[in-house]
Amino acid sequence: MKKRITSTGRLLLLLILPVLFMVSGCKKFLDRKPLTATLDDVKQGGIEGQVFAIYSAIKDYDIGNVFGGIPWQGMHNFRSDDSEKGSDAADGAEWVAPMDNFQYVKDFWASNFYWDGHYQLISLANIAIQTADSLGLTGPESNANIAEARFFRAFAYFDLVRSFGDVPKIDFRIYTPAQGNVAKSPASVIYALIDADLQYAAANLPTVWGAQYPGRLSSGAAKALHAKAHLFRGNWAQALALGQQVIGSGQYALYSSYHGIFKDAGENSSESILEWQNYMGPNRTDDRGSWYATCQGVRAPNSSGWNLGWGWNTPTDAFVNHFEAGDPRKGSSVLFSGQSDDIATGGYGGTLPNYILDPVPGPLPRKYWNKKVYADPAVRASTGWLDAAYWINQRVIRYADVLLMVAECLNETGAGSQAAPLVNQVRSRVGLTGITYVDQAQMRAAIKKERRSELGLEGERFFDLVRWGDAVSVLGPQGYQNRCRFYPIPQPAIDRSGGVLIQNPEW
Fold first, then answer.
1. Is residue 153 helix, strand or coil?
2. Is 3.90.1640.10 the CATH number for 212-273+320-334+393-468?
3. Is the pTM of the predicted complex or chain greater than 0.85?
């Protein structure tokens, strides 16, 4: 299956311009009839059909790969100290140097695909926004649709600006490739667009949509993402205000058990603020899944009965060893080769085979695996996918993340004593003793550790280290330098621009 993705990525590199891919590639999504709305409904029912196409695109098997599949895992997880490429040594060996050891490659299919896919999503959003404007659509329903499109545009640009730095700002519909061949804008300009889009989204999205639309964007999601974007820039007051609005809305609460968040029953729980929806019907019918969980499942020979996926994004020793004694999140986050899957922390009563280098060698190529994507054997059997987990939702922003963001903002603005109760909500959920505020430095260290324990393997750690200024000290032994905070702009994109797009000066 990895070859299927690789081939898709290589096809993208053959395009004349990334934006040309946007113009020609969007049609296949817009021609679909998602849920109950289509483009035939535009004049009567707003732009809902186009918006549903964006939801489909962000998690399907092609463009969605850059928002949860292996390219996303590389950019968001492998580069941290919590996880590594994984799988067996020969599988995807070319990923180790750029993603685990920070020997970035300017023409690497994964980063090329990541870049192109984000701009394709931006193009879909721009088309929807322009359509609404050209038709003069107004009213709450159309404004909500526009807000959804603007949220997705902001979401894509937030990934781009923190991954590459200065990037081209394309906030208009592209009709010809030349229109999209624009120079980079400063990161401050990109953030201004993100701020405006998310302010509009928060003001025009509903608090809830109702049970018929699980996972649909809400004002809470817009505020939580906006808080995260401010947090990345160290805008403590702005992030604090937005996070407190999310908490004060009363719409969210910590789920009863930590491991339960990641089970099928925990999908779209009280803790879910933003969650990509996946589904697979019985016997592989009604496939609306993604690569997210499958690319991370335990990798083993079929004969072992433990071939659950492709085995990427595996925990490191550093991650496993950082947990404090008695923290059940360790057992809820990590599957251990040669050990029970531990029903008490989300297992199903199985025992994994040994690691290939254990004293008694077994068939598994890694010591550890991501338990947060551990598929229920009963569901695997019902779907007919014994070696995959396409149906598992991707938890993108959780309420626990917001609690810890607000705690961090309080501490950084001199109200650290008010931060402790928020951190302790997260700790209490897993049965850990609460912490007491001593001083700002002590609380800062406690919050950093808590974020790592709570959000491990969920794509937050690398960017946390960068924004904290800790990346050089923590990741330096792996080859990280300060310039590695940004990945080089893909060389094929620069080549196709005819000199308009200029490489990051540090690269």
1. helix
2. no
3. yes
